[in-house]
Amino acid sequence: MADLQDDIPATVEIGADDGLPDDLFGDRRPAGELLERAHALLAEHPVADGYSGLPWALRHLPWYDLELGEAAIDTDVPRLREGHVGALFWSLHLSGETGGERAVTAALEQLDLVRTVVESHPEGLRLVGTAGQVIDARNCGRVAVVPGPAPGAALDDSLGILRVLHALGLRVLTLAGTAWAGESGLTRFGEEVVREMNRLGVLADVSGASPATAARTIALSKTPVLCSRSAARARRPHPANLPDDLLAALGEAKGLCMVPLTAEQTGPAVPDVADHLDHIRDVAGPECVGLSGTYDSGVVHPRDLADTSRYPHLIAELLRRGWSETELSLLTWRNVQRVLRSADFTARATQQRRASHARITELDAAP
Asked: At the top level of its lineage, which domain of life is listed (predicted)?
């Protein structure tokens, strides 16, 4: 990552004279006026950020106060307010070799940390689990915290553990990296996991999953599928980025591709991120695109997008390119709200369905 940081070319802050005509991307206003307009738009339609590594980052700090501000991390309440972030999905990160029972313990510890952090910052944060609670938190001037995504390894191949994690607040599960969601797609047990997630209201995240797993999950799930950290492979050939055929399928199924603000996946500068957003909007539709800051997850961010306060600069770039207010409101807030509402509705509609007690050893046993 250090080498990647060294390769990032110097760019100009939005609002500075870059020597380019004001109407290069479709808006003739000066850059400073675009930035003001971006702030105004985000005040009405704040950012719902699809991936934050904050819980893991806080484990390594001896003391912190998110409401006062923390220079050692990318996220705190003052910068969330400056960047107009209204909701955050907090990743329940596990270390690379964590598996089995230890993965379950680690996920529970992460959920406990999330609850502890939110409860100790009541003036800035509120733990939520539904679309309605997200709106309530915003109306009360709090940033909504949604627990997840958690890696599929946290289930230890048990649907009972999935139900326990959901009862403790988990709302997004990443399928990649499990025995039941591999290169050849979902196994029979994997399909049962997706059905049980639908019944509970837990969203499926297929970022990093194989094309076969992503395609089968999109076809099977009764709720929209997320890609919590995926950009356009046509713009940058990163393995976690999506090819156009999967983007189109995700768009047809009303799923959501949340573009990460990382130099590795999207490029070193704000215009590179905007190129991915343009491409996904054109291929999958404006209702399929969202944002994932991936802050505090140990990655290098594009220049001018160093922390959670910088979202207005990205929105100003999109305004310059001619994105409408409707498209931007979908990107920042409304698409995530739609997906959360869909998960809530599906869970209510399937309340009478019996909980599955299927075992991986029964469904995926060799013939």
From this structure: Bacteria
